[in-house]
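# step 3/5: fold
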Amino acid sequence: MSHAIQERPVSVTPRRSLSHARLPRWTPAAVAVGSIAAGCGLGLAAGWHSKVQWGLVSALVFVLATYAITTKVEGSRQAKDRVATSLIWVSFVLAVVPLLSLAWVTISKGLEVLDGYFLSHSMNGVLDAEAGGGVYHALLGTIEQVAIATLIAAPIGLLTAVYLVEYGHGKLARAVTFFVDVMTGIPSIVAGLFILATWNLMLGFGPSGFAGAMALAILMMPVVVRSTEEMLKLVPNELREASLALGVPKWRTILKVVLPTAIGGITTGVMLAVARITGETAPVLLLVFGTKLINPNPFEGAQSSLPLYVYEQYAVGTDAAVARAWAAALVLIAFVMILNLVARGIARWKAPKTGR
């Protein structure tokens, strides 16, 4: 008995491609240009005078357009990834634009007065409303005060961080950590008032650059402690264990292994602390007083500093005084930049060599 074999139709499933549609690589740049054009157009149409509003609208249009276009072509999952990337780029631009704007304005206005005469003369015999004069006395005071503050704060902060990371356990270490965190948020005027009450009023010393340096050291120490502590924690424990296994004492392991390994981060932390105190005005105004004369002795008599000089000249309000204030601000920025470059060079020179 033969049975008829009935053939069933076989459904063929279409092969799915493993690759999906992708936007061209130039799409983000094109979207950015279009968003800037849209933001400027909306700003002109609405009559907005602030360019900040134009930039914020352009950033919002960029994010929304990126999400819409990517969702249409690549799907919602890839769109979310591109939106996250777009937010990162927008945040980067929003952070860099004010920085570049500040640098451009300071350089353009500061170069009008900045020259060799300005750097080598003081304000002795020059009225604030008149043109002329220089910043030499303020620059000298800043260098001396920052140097003294660094000599006080950097060793204390470094040794405190070494104690907390390498030796600190129990209640004392927790108490030190707590007070370091509290000191990080102390306003500069409070540090100045503390030195004024103790050094000047209780002990009877007069205004001097050293008094201002002590207040700056109080502001600098917690920054050095926290940054150095974090850098020391990044040093692998295997390096410590290898050194101790060879019979090297712990203090020598810290001196020869731990600190050289973290020297780059430690130097960066110290420079951040220096950059913070370099621009402080309140402690200098309370303790140093300011002067138009050149005073090379930081331990006796009033001194000046670059932040105080900028404040005094800008407060005068005349064109010549404001121009001197911009030039002094440019000198202050250059001073901090040179310190950073020198510190990074020293850190790279002293850092342990890697490779063969």
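# step 4/5: annotate
Residues 11-18 have pLDDT under 50 and may be disordered.
# step 5/5: archive (pending)
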